[in-house]
Amino acid sequence: GENVEQHPSTLSVQEGDSAVIKCTYSDSASNYFPWYKQELGKRPQLIIDIRSNVGEKKDQRIAVTLNKTAKHFSLHITETQPEDSAVYFCAASRGSGGGADGLTFGKGTHLIIQP
Amino acid sequence: GAVVSQHPSRVICKSGTSVKIECRSLDFQATTMFWYRQFPKKSLMLMATSNEGSKATYEQGVEKDKFLINHASLTLSTLTVTSAHPEDSSFYICSARGLGANVLTFGAGSRLTVL
């Protein structure tokens, strides 16, 4: 089955700096890679996703890059703000017929934004 | 946007009793629902995938007789933890997606404490 590795487990950055979280996956058939943000005790919220036919996607301060050959994808957050503090999970799945099978999640990265 | 309601948010029960958790899609038909378990400061572990009208598919290591999943309608899936024990205490989260959709919507989670 799929195995997703996520690093680092904890990341502390100064407010205004950039943060990068990296994930690798094992199943070359995976074609959908979402990123979720989870605040303490709350539900995971999708913040950005990318499909295997795209190398990069950006949404304001958040961007995701995908290297299919190397089987890794990264989340980039620029100009970090205190409200960015949360746990971030990457995930991978192989979609079939337009739908996603159950996601395999990375172990999460606790992002801490220092004021 | 898509909304998933999960109930109850918190439940405390005695060892040996059964607990039912509901997951409802409020504004879309959820052809597939997923149940996850999350330990403190840990990732989401997929327990099972349920498709409306059919039996759930359980992940390896998850006891199907202990974690009963029913997905009887396109808007409701239930997880019943039978004969609960303290080691079943955890945060359980459901997610749902509609037909042809690759995006998951998560419920707010249910914190189960077994005394």
Write the layout of secondary structure elements.
The complex is a heterodimer of chains A (115) and B (115).
Chain A: E1 4-7, E2 10-14, E3 19-25, E4 32-38, E5 45-51, E6 56-59, E7 62-67, E8 72-77, E9 86-92, E10 95-96, E11 99-100, E12 104-105, E13 109-114
Parallel strand pairs in A: 2-13
Antiparallel strand pairs in A: 1-3, 3-8, 4-5, 4-9, 6-7, 7-8, 9-12, 9-13, 10-11
Chain B: E1 4-7, E2 10-13, E3 19-25, E4 30-38, E5 44-51, E6 57-58, E7 67-73, E8 76-81, E9 90-98, E10 105-106, E11 110-114
Parallel strand pairs in B: 2-11
Antiparallel strand pairs in B: 1-3, 3-8, 4-5, 4-9, 5-6, 7-8, 9-10, 9-11
Can you describe what's shown?
The complex is a heterodimer of chains A (115) and B (115). Chain A has strands spanning 4-7, 10-14, 19-25, 32-38, 45-51, 56-59, 62-67, 72-77, 86-92, 95-96, 99-100, 104-105, 109-114. By secondary structure, chain A is mostly beta strands. In chain A, 33% of the residues are buried. Mean pLDDT of chain A is 89; it is low at 96-100. In chain B, β7 (67-73) and β8 (76-81) form a beta hairpin. In chain B, the strands form 2 sheets. In chain B, strands 2, 4, 5, 6, 9, 10 and 11 form a 7-stranded mixed sheet that branches. Classes of the chains: A mainly beta (115), B mainly beta (115). The interface between A and B is medium-sized, with 27 and 23 residues.
